[in-house]
Amino acid sequence: MNVEQLKILHYIVEDGSLKAASDRMSKTQPALSIALKKLEADVGFAIVDRSDYRLKLTAQGSLFYRQAKQVLRDMDRLTTLSDQLAQGDEPELTILFELACPPSLYLDAFLKTQQRFTATQFNFNSGIRFSSIESVQQNNAQLGIGPWFHIFHSSGDFQTLSLGHYHLVVAASPRLLSGQSSHHLSKLSQYPIITTRESELNFDNEKLSAFKSGSQQCRVTDPETARRLMLNHMGWGMIPKHYIEQDLQEKRLIQLELKDFESEFSGEIRAFRRNDKTHGPVAEYLWQMLKDNTD
């Protein structure tokens, strides 16, 4: 039994006749008939019922063909993998995107790259608070997507690509603040603040936080957890606006206006990668797709 015999069986079953299969494979009908009989001799049972004008599978043949199709699919994947590896395509690519970034800035590029390089394993990781630059710097990711600050140049030599902007707002549940949306920062200090944990980068510390508050802190690792705590009236804090737009519209959360401090923050989002590394075809294609998405 070999792969060519399984292909012949597949085309005979799919096309419904030896003639149709022979036309598709550019082989003679006798050649296909001999190959099919040889396959049946190898497995020891009849795969097709020849009693009717149109060939059909026997009960045993149906079970065999079901597994044969899986083998052929696996062979196609193996062939694709071999071709891509021979061309120098990366077998694996790791991307880390920060959750402050609106998905519309990168998901389309991810999809196109995944569909183009079907043999590559993609590791899509998410993070917060400088985790993208940290991962690229430490070679844990080949590409990072996140908020960009010029101070990042001090931590490495990076090639960057501007993708758009992030937008952070201060929010809380109406119940926590008795429905009032305008406050002094000093008054908010009596309520718990929900904030993200610092990264391990040497320039990341509490001084880079948007607020200095003596209030109780609830530290979280992602915006969705922050959102759920806010909805549960457990505190106020700064959060990417795209996470809570529906909550704001339905008044489950309210956007706060601070009388003595900035209430909204926006900044640039960039894709970045190390300049001292060679990037393969998959990484280059993804970079171009991200670039095309901004044009």
TrEMBL record:
SUPFAM superfamilies: Periplasmic binding protein-like II, Winged helix' DNA-binding domain. Gene3D superfamilies: 3.40.190.290, Winged helix-like DNA-binding domain superfamily/Winged helix DNA-binding domain (1.10.10.10). PROSITE patterns: HTH_LYSR. Residues 1-58 form the HTH lysR-type domain. Keywords: DNA-binding, Transcription, Transcription regulation. One of its GO terms (molecular function) is transcription cis-regulatory region binding. InterPro entries: LysR_HTH_N, LysR_subst-bd, WH-like_DNA-bd_sf, WH_DNA-bd_sf. Belongs to the LysR transcriptional regulatory family. This is DNA-binding transcriptional LysR family regulator. It comes from Pleionea mediterranea.
